[in-house]
Design brief:
The protein is mainly beta and about 375 residues long. It has a single domain, classed as Methylamine Dehydrogenase, Chain H. It has two helices and 30 strands. The strands form seven sheets. Strands 21-20-19-18-29-30 form a six-stranded antiparallel beta sheet, with no helix packed on it. A four-stranded antiparallel beta sheet has the order 1-28-27-26, with no helix packed on it. The chain has a four-stranded antiparallel beta sheet with strand order 2-3-4-5, with no helix packed on it. Helix 1 packs antiparallel against helix 2. The radius of gyration is 24 Å and the shape is globular.
């Protein structure tokens, strides 16, 4: 039975939902955007008017870019390879070329721009302006404002729903979410959520929008089919941003007040894990190439890199995170979507069964000895 014991010991532990590296990023790291074209992660530094560029393959800092005052939200535009940064203190948006890591344009928007979302259907960037209750719409062809939309009080988080061609805006001041049609740039619905909604994430797998309610310590789940709340999930203290991970069908919620990230299953709308990160986890984004979630910890001056683990099933979707708000496509084939652990466990079971069968066969073939007879 020695072989049986060895076979059982060789079962590997499941991977995922653990911090695999912590990077030092000074100056109050706040917003995060994954650039799928370059395989890089851009992190805004609210206290130093700069953006740090991280190589996602080596998890090391490769560049720093000076931008406007108090940069917070950030998003990547895969159509032109530019990164857009909301400078809250300067009422501008800096446009960074990911080829040169330099600012190539600056766009004036509303008062206190906070968060951005890239609309792939229209080729536009939507920017929430917290202090004048509007959303600026920027054309990525001209880098000019083409529309201004009035929304609710203190708009903060924003996310694009590509299936509906709609933009969802979290209004912190009146506990609502405004739904904007990107074809008319007008509000088509208003949805009541929890207190002080901030970050948001669009889940392409379920067609739902997850909204972090910072003063209710909950996440509201909105169906984009009915524009209504279908579930409310309790999370940690002061949830800020939310990030959708299409490979596992999970939503990661940054709990600003408890140095943790809550992981929600979009199948059950329940918290399935809690991950410890740095102090004041603000916003995050998903790296589809490495299957990792990057979390900016503002107070501790770090970025936590969380392994999202193996795929739960064959999945095709688009990840859109807001708070930091960025968009990236992710497609997992059926062969790649099978979790590593069940495959290896099945092999162990097969080997163990064979060993047991051999052992039993050997016992049956062995000669019977009458132990009561003298030798």
């Amino acid at each position: 039975m020695t072989f049986l014991a060895l076979a059982l010991v060789s079962v590997p532990a499941a991977r995922g939902q653990t911090v695999v590296k912590t990077l030092g990023v000074s100056g109050g790291p706040t917003g995060v955007a994954y650039d799928s074209g370059k395989g890089e992660v851009f992190v805004t530094q609210v206290d130093s008017a700069a953006v740090t560029v991280i190589s996602a393959s080596s998890n090391s800092v490769v560049a720093s870019v000076n931008v406007g005052s108090e940069p917070k939200g950030i998003t990547y535009d895969p159509a032109n390879g530019d990164v857009y940064v909301a400078n809250t203190g300067g009422d501008t948006v800096s446009v960074i070329s990911d080829t040169t890591n330099k600012v190539v344009d600056t766009v004036t928007v509303g008062n206190s721009p906070n968060t951005l979302a890239y609309d792939s259907g229209k080729g536009e960037i939507f920017v929430t302006n917290a202090d004048d209750n509007t959303v600026s719409v920027i054309s990525d062809q001209s880098n000019a404002v083409v529309a201004t939309i009035g929304v609710g009080g203190l708009p903060r988080g924003i996310v694009y729903d590509q299936a509906k061609g709609e933009v969802f805006v979290a209004n912190e001041g009146n506990a609502t979410v405004s739904v904007v049609s990107d074809s008319s740039d007008t509000i088509i619905a208003n949805i009541t959520v929890g207190e002080a909604p901030l970050g948001m994430a669009y889940d392409s797998g379920t067609g739902e929008v997850f909204v972090s309610n910072s003063e209710s310590n909950t996440v509201s789940v909105i169906s984009d089919a009915s524009d209504s709340v279908v579930a409310t999930v309790g999370v940690g203290n002061t949830p800020y941003d939310a990030v959708y991970v299409p490979t596992t069908g999970e939503v990661y919620v940054m709990n600003y007040g408890t140095t943790t990230v809550s992981v929600i299953s979009d199948k059950t709308n329940t918290v399935t894990a809690t991950v410890g990160v740095g102090t004041w986890p603000d916003r995050g984004d998903f790296d589809s190439a490495q299957n990792e979630v990057f979390v900016a910890n503002q107070d501790s001056g770090t970025v936590s890199i969380i392994s999202a683990g193996p795929s739960s099933s064959s999945t095709t979707g688009t990840s859109v995170s807001t708070g930091a708000t960025s968009t990236q496509s992710s497609s997992t084939s059926a062969s790649k979507g099978i979790p590593e652990f069940p495959l290896q466990f099945g092999a162990v079971v097969a080997v163990t069964t064979a060993v047991i069968a051999l052992y039993i066969g050997a016992r049956r073939l062995a000669p019977v000895v009458d132990r009561r007879s003298p030798a």
